[in-house]
Amino acid sequence: MDVLILCGGMGTRLKDVSGELPKPMVEVCGRPFLELLVDYVRGYGFRRIIFCTGYRGEYIEEYFSGKDSGFVFSRETTPLGTAGAIKNAEGLIEGEDFIVLNGDSFCDVDLAGFSQFHRRKGGICSVVVVKTSDVSDYGSVEFTDDGRITGFFEKKGGKDGYVNAGVYCFRRDVLEEIPQGSACSMEYELLPSILNRGVYGYVCDGSLYDIGTPSRLARARQELYDILTRHRKEE
Questions:
Q1: CA neighbor of 147 nearest in space, from 113, 198, 188
Q2: How many Cα neighbours within 13 Å face the side chain of 5?
Q3: Where are the domains of the chain?
Q4: CA-to-CA distance for 116 and 44, rounded, in angstroms?
Q5: Where does the pLDDT of residue 67 fall: very low under 50, low under 70, confident under 90, or very high at 90 and above?
Q6: Could you confirm whether 23 is annotated as catalytic?
Q7: 33 and 220 in contact (C-beta within 8 Å)?
Q8: What predicted TM-score, i.e. pTM, was given to this entire model?
Q9: Of these residues, 67, 131, 155, 159, which one is catalytic?
């Protein structure tokens, strides 16, 4: 099963820290954040990784090129959004199912168990969801007792609930739902449009981190080391 990592965003809120680097290449635990993410994915046995690059994509391509035969690159020349970046990589995706991760976030989820859940449910998409005491940063996800997602809702502060962790498993035919060559958002356009085809939430007890702002980056730098070190020992 291929793993696509979305790493083409401009990261404007992190500019004071990242400078000219694309956001996923910012240092965390002494290494580029994206490299930590790749190691985490590889720890679950996934070998073929498609980097969906865009802004300053040459930094990512130069860093990872030649390091592993399983690395593939899909560069967008104009911003296509999260779903548009997946469509742009369509010709590179092998197999009937694939995983998608955001290149600027980390969720401590069992990716092997998640992919098995997706195949067992048989829907067009599965989404990792994490419980939080305040859904204001991410927006909430609601689902039935059997895990079927019924809606994605705008960010509203002051209440607990489940949030989208930015980790997805798709059936290949989802690509037919994404327009070719134009911008399309996964969160606001694609996912709501396919709810009637079976979108399921995989509840994860692990922590969710993102590096989208200086304060969130600081938290990731402080807390991720122990999590990633534990996973390396388990391997």
A1: 198
A2: 31
A3: 2-127+164-234
A4: 12
A5: confident
A6: no
A7: yes
A8: 0.92
A9: 155
